[in-house]
Structure formats: structure tokens, C-alpha cells
Amino acid sequence: MTEKFNIAVFQGDGIGPEIMAPTVEILDRMAKVSGSYSLQFNEAPAGAAHYAKTGESLPAASMKVAHDADAILLSAMGLPEVRYEDGTEISPQIELRKALKLFAGVRPVTVRKGQRTPLHMPAGKEIDFVLIRESTEGLFFSQGCGEVSENEARETLVITREVSEKLFTFAFDLAKTRKTAGRGPGRVTCVDKANVFRAFAFFRDLFDKEAARHPDLIADHAYVDATALWMVQKPWDFDVLVTENMFGDILSDLGAGLMGGLGLAPSADIGLDNAVFQPCHGSAPDIAGQGIANPFAMLLSAAMMLDWLGLRHENAAMRRDGDRLREAVEDVVAQAQALTRDLGGTAGTRQAAEAIENALFVK
Ligand code: ATP
Q1: For strand 127-134 and strand 240-243, is the pairing parallel, antiparallel, or unpaired?
Q2: What angle do CA 103, 180, 322 make, to 5 degrees?
Q3: What is d(CA 170, CA 208) in angstroms, rounded to the nearest whole number?
Q4: Around Cβ 6, how many Cβ atoms within 10 Å?
Q5: Contact by Cβ (8 Å): 349, 294
Q6: Are the C-beta atoms of residues 135 and 102 closer than 8 Å to each other?
Q7: Share of residues in the chain with pLDDT > 90 (%)
Q8: Which residue has a Cα nearest atom 25 of ligand 1?
Q9: Would the CB of 22 count as within 6 Å of ligand 1?
Q10: Three-state SS for 120?
Q11: Looking at ligand 1, which atom is closest to the CA of residue 283?
Q12: CA 305, CA 324: separation in Å to the nearest integer?
């Protein structure tokens, strides 16, 4: 029987619609070729341009589409010149993360043979690890509520047992899934600053309790500063890293740098009941409307969506399609075919997407 999935689609701002269009086209074609699942795409208007037009950045109707969806695809939202009255940026993606309790920010970092990277890669080495950034609390807990007086400013870091336990369960489950798929030794590293802050000693203690439930997996710890060093010196040694919100925010951009830029960095924000899949980059207003945006990070995020849905609904065909889409992008990048300008090539969005379609469908 063909299983049907509802996908909420946030086209967003700037280059958002340009990279979403080929992504939806490719996903739709994969589903039709497979015949084992079908995808119903439901548009959800939101973002800075929508706010400028209507006074609402995330209408209740769009929130409902997201809430009711099996998964959410989001390209990029926000425009530098459009702001709320208090001067802050329009970022409905953060509201979605909070409203849907998407605690696990999953940021894969991969560098395959042939892929451009600022690192000097030893022969035969590839990078393939996942950084999990807690996405609802940590130092971002007090976002917008910091206290500032004339001589002092304070922000509060919050780490809760409830969220940390869910986060660590997620991290160990992911390491197990990767190990079963032949990607990584099944190791989870807790990245913290437990030598200085009691909150991180608490975080680490909860990590150790979860680790004890997984004798088949390896668990270790690393301080965040050492992790930044090792991400440059020996990133091929990592498997699954799990960390607090602000540390993860910073390390995930370092990860994108290892991959040769934001144009190849996908992400997922995952909760118990829903998940948002979106590229790590923003709406790139400087290149919007020119047809030159790189669609690869969006496509890799869509591949993560197929994998997540397939695992959750035990749909093997969908997981296979997730792998095929990811490998198609990785192959095209490694062979330096149809690279957009941010990756040193000359291709436009359409040509780059066509190269992926050819890799997937033309035998
Ligand atoms: P945000 O704060 O929303 O993350 P930002 O202003 O920090 O946004 P981006 O919108 O990601 O950053 O843009 C940073 C730079 O990267 C810009 O020069 C932009 O053109 C480029 N860029 C971002 N995404 C892409 C893409 N998909 N293809 C090509 N260039 C991109």
C-alpha cells in the first residue's frame, strides 16, 4: 500500500522559493518513481516579506499546517531591512522550533573524497559526523529577556533534566542507527564545559546515565574548546557529538566551514512529534532573484527528511531514497559537476538541480 505523507512547505524569503522549487520537484518525482509512498505538499506562507505585506510573520493558519504535517520543509526566512517594531529580525523558524518543541538540532558534517575543503585531508580520509545541538534552552533560553542596566548585563543559561534526557536518548539512538547503516563506530561524545560550570556537570551527569543504558555503544566526553581544535585537526575521528544550544550554534558553523561553506550544510530540528528540515544558510538577499543560488543544502535537508520519515514509519523505500538523494548530491559535488558560484563553479540553480536529477533518474 502507498503510504501518504503531508509535507508543510515554507518557501520563505530571498532565495528561499528558488531553492525550494527544484527540491519539491525532485522529491515528488522520487515518490512517483518509487510508488511506495506519496507526498502531499502544503504551502505555508510566512517570513519577512509576508510580514511586510500583512503584518504577520507566522500566521496561525501556517502554524496549523506545520503542526498537522508529517514533516516540515523550510528554505530560509528573514530579510535584513524588514524588522519587528523592537528592531529584532523576523525569524519564524525560531518560533516553530519553540512551539513544536524541536529540541534536537541535527547538523551533519561530511567531506567526501574530491570535495573542496579548507582542511588538508590525509589520503583516504573522509569526514562523516553529526553534531546535535540542543535547540530550545541552554544560553538561548533567555533570548529577548536578558537584563541590561547601566553597568551590567545578564543572560541566563538553563539546562533541564527533561530536555537533556530526551536529547541524549536521541543522540544514542542516532549513533545506533548510523552504526547499523555502516556509518561510524557507534560513539557519542558529550561536548561541554563541565570543568568550569556546574550546569555542564549536571548535563554531563545526565549524559552518563543515558550512556549506561547503551553498553553496545561508546560514550565519551570532550570540552568544547578542545572540540573546536579537534574539528580542525582530526574531524574524521568524530561520530555523534551532542552539546548545548550556544556551543552547538558556534560549532555547527565551524562544521559548515569544513564542508566548504554554508551552501552544502543541511540541518534538521527534530522533536518527539515533528521536525523541520532546512539548510543552515539564510535567505541570501544579495543574490535573490538571479537564479544562481545553490540548492544543494536544501536538497540534502530534504534527503534527511526522507530518512527521518522512513525510519519513523518503517518505510524502507523512503530511507533508500533519502540515501540516494544524499549520495547524488555528494557525487555531483565530489566530481565538481554543476557547481554554483559559492562552490567555485559557474552553474545556476536550475543547472545544479538538473545534475542531481540526471544522477537520480537517468541511467
Ligand atoms: P542568516 O542570519 O539568516 O543566517 P546571513 O545574512 O548570516 O543570514 P546568508 O543569508 O546565509 O547569511 O548569506 C551569507 C552569504 O552566503 C551571502 O553572501 C549569500 O549570498 C551566501 N549564500 C548563502 N546561501 C547561499 C546559497 N544557497 N547559494 C549561494 N550563496 C549563498
Answers
A1: parallel
A2: 65
A3: 14
A4: 14
A5: yes
A6: yes
A7: 88
A8: 263
A9: no
A10: coil
A11: 10
A12: 13
Is residue 339 within 8 A of residue 11, CB to CB? The reply is: no
The radius of gyration of the chain's CA atoms, rounded to the nearest angstrom, is 20
Mutate which of 90, 259, 262 to test ligand 1's pocket (most atoms within 8 Å of Cβ)? 262
Give the atom of ligand 1 at the shortest distance from the alpha carbon of 77. 3
pLDDT digits (tens, 9 = 90+) for 330-348: 999 988 889 999 999 999 9
Grid cell 530540528 — which residue? 269
The residue nearest atom 22 of ligand 1, judged by CA position, is 284
Residue with cell 542596566: 149
Q: How far is the CA of 286 from the centre of ligand 1 (A)?
A: 8
Mutate-to-test residue for ligand 1 from 75, 342, 349, highest number of ligand atoms within 8 A of CB: 342
Per the document, the length of the chain is: 363
Could you please report the per-residue DSSP string of 233-270? H-GGG-SEEEE-HHHHHHHHHHHHHHTTSGGG-EEEEE
Q: Report the C-alpha gap between 169 and 104 in whole angstroms.
A: 10
Q: Tell me, using a 6 A CB cutoff, whether residue 294 lines ligand 1.
A: yes
pLDDT digits (tens, 9 = 90+) for 68-110: 999 999 999 999 999 988 888 888 988 899 899 999 999 999 9
Q: Across the strands, what pairs with 128?
A: 110
pLDDT tens, 217-253?
999 999 999 999 999 999 999 999 999 999 999 999 9
Supply 330's cell numbers: 555528494
The residue whose CA has the least distance to atom 13 of ligand 1 is: 284
Cα(112)–Cα(26) distance, integer angstroms = 23
Closest CA to 94 of 144, 21, 44: 144
Q: Helix (H, G, I), strand (E, B), or coil: what is residue 218?
A: strand
CA angle at 164 for the pair 229 and 239, rounded to the nearest 5°: 40
Is any ligand 1 atom within 6 A of the Cβ of residue 283? Answer: yes
Rounded CA gap, 206 and 187, in Å? 17
